[in-house]
């Protein structure tokens, strides 16, 4: 991203001024400027509409201390984060400014964080992701991505003696038509709100766990896909509140049962061709499509530190829970970390992609996609090859069977994932010294936070944070 000089600032101010009449007509009073911290919590500042041009030109002040924030709002004394000194500027991306259908009077624009000198902040995850997108583009490669969003809806007041308890607000069965009938008005309002905001919804359905629902959206450029992930979640939270429902996107809402995933679909493109299909490789992969996927597979242990970033993530990421607890890939294998999807014959060029199942919605989507792009690009540069695909639940094999098939268990704790990330040279280089260190420091901070806390205690503390 460019240095913000006076011309750029003037252009940004003019662009914001040009938007004002339309926003006033839409009843917008104020604009929310969200960004996601290292721990995965979305933080926000807002400006009244009249201040949008000034915010576009000069940004809005925000302390860099948030780089060191944990999900309980305590602050880690990191090597490069956590200091109360200094200031950053939040600059709204006006190209993504959206009138919020679920929050009348409000618009929303994700921000890039800059220094006061007008250079991108080295720990800005959105700027990092854009740099990685640009670097792939230099090799003629484009990635399309999309997040699936799973969430549970609970009764707003929990239990009589425990307001923070999770009590499913729905009783119908998994994928049940009766559950859909229960959420009929709520789901309609949600779909209308998303459409008004320009989000292309692919599907909505009742999911497996008690009170669980899911929305999947169309694939986009990675920065747009991460922005959309924020917008979808924000919309779900807002529409749920209108319907008197409390929502949780936490990886594990209660200690038993299936958690909330945040599966990510990725495809690699060159000159308008989907490199995940039409090739001579396994399931139609082209050499670059295979190499990208092999890069993801190789770096999965370290990627978990950004894709499954919470202690609660590892309560979800267990075998035989559809969460992808083993480093393996397979065609439509929902127990492999990488589920390869071809789509139906005739539609493969459009539909083929790889789904990373191990990730969840505690993740900062920009950091997560940045990690995936770095890992995939390293695979492409090295011409990496995939091992044989796995066609069974890896948990159904013996230890020896898994060893023979080259299937490794993924990290089973946040500490293990943080160590893998710390030692991953590809991710270290892509993130840069400061952000790489901060991710490690924040993860270790969360590990320390939950030292000795029971699974149920962790679920309870994390339940309403994301
Ligand atoms: N809820 C499961 C998870 O934690 C995923 C279910 C599915 O396959 O969509 O990832
Ligand atoms: Mg699902």
TrEMBL record:
GO terms for molecular function: ATP binding; glutamine synthetase activity. One of its GO terms (biological process) is glutamine biosynthetic process. SUPFAM superfamilies: Glutamine synthetase, N-terminal domain, Glutamine synthetase/guanido kinase. The keyword ATP-binding applies. Residues 125-466 form the GS catalytic domain. InterPro entries: Gln_synt_N (IPR008147), Gln_synt_N_sf (IPR036651), Gln_synth/guanido_kin_cat_dom (IPR014746), Gln_synth_cat_dom (IPR008146). Keywords: ATP-binding, Ligase, Nucleotide-binding. It holds the Pfam family Gln-synt_C. Residues 26-118 form the GS beta-grasp domain. SMART domains: Gln-synt_C (SM01230). PROSITE patterns: GS_BETA_GRASP, GS_CATALYTIC. The keyword Hydrolase does not apply. It comes from the Bacteria. Belongs to the glutamine synthetase family. This is L-glutamine synthetase.
């Amino acid at each position: 991203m460019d240095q913000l000089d006076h011309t750029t600032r003037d252009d940004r101010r003019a662009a914001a001024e040009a938007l004002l009449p339309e926003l006033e007509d839409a009843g917008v009073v104020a604009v929310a400027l969200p960004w996601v911290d290292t721990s995965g919590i979305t933080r926000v500042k807002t400006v009244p509409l009249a201040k949008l041009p000034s915010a576009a030109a000069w940004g809005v002040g925000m302390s860099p201390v948030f780089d060191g924030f944990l999900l309980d709002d305590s602050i880690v004394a990191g090597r490069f984060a956590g200091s109360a000194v200094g200031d950053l500027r939040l600059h709204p991306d006006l190209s993504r400014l959206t009138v919020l259908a679920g929050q009348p009077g409000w618009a929303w624009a994700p921000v890039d964080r800059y220094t006061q000198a007008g250079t991108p902040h080295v720990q800005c995850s959105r700027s990092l992701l854009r740099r990685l997108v640009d670097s792939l583009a230099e090799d003629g490669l484009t990635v399309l991505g999309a997040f699936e969003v799973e969430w549970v809806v609970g009764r707003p007041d929990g239990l009589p003696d425990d307001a923070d308890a999770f009590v499913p607000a729905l009783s119908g069965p998994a994928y049940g038509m009766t559950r859909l009938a229960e959420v009929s008005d709520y789901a309609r309002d949600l779909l209308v709100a998303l459409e008004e905001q320009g989000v292309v919804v692919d599907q909505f359905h009742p999911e497996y766990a008690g009170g669980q629902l899911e929305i999947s959206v169309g694939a986009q450029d990675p920065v747009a896909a991460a922005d959309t992930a924020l917008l979808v979640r924000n919309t779900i939270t807002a529409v749920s509140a209108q319907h008197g429902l409390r929502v949780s996107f936490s990886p594990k809402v209660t200690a038993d049962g299936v958690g909330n995933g945040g599966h990510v679909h990725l495809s690699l493109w060159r000159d308008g061709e989907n490199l995940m299909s039409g090739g001579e490789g396994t399931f139609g992969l082209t050499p670059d499509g295979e190499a990208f996927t092999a890069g993801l597979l190789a770096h999965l242990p370290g990627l978990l530190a950004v894709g499954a970033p919470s202690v609660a993530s590892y309560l979800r990421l267990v075998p035989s829970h559809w969460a992808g607890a083993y480093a393996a890939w397979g065609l439509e294998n929902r127990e492999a970390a990488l589920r390869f999807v071809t789509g139906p014959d005739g539609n493969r060029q459009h539909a083929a992609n790889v789904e990373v199942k191990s990730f969840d919605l505690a993740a900062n989507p920009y950091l997560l996609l940045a990690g995936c792009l770095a890992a995939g690009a390293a695979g492409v540069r090295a011409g990496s090859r995939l091992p044989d695909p796995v066609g069974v639940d890896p948990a159904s094999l013996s230890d020896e069977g898994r060893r023979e098939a080259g299937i490794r268990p993924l990290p089973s704790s946040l500490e293990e994932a943080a160590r893998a990330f710390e030692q991953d040279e590809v991710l270290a280089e892509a993130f840069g010294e400061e952000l790489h260190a901060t991710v490690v420091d924040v993860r270790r901070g969360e590990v320390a936070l939950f030292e000795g806390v029971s699974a149920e205690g962790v679920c309870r503390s994390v339940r309403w944070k994301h």
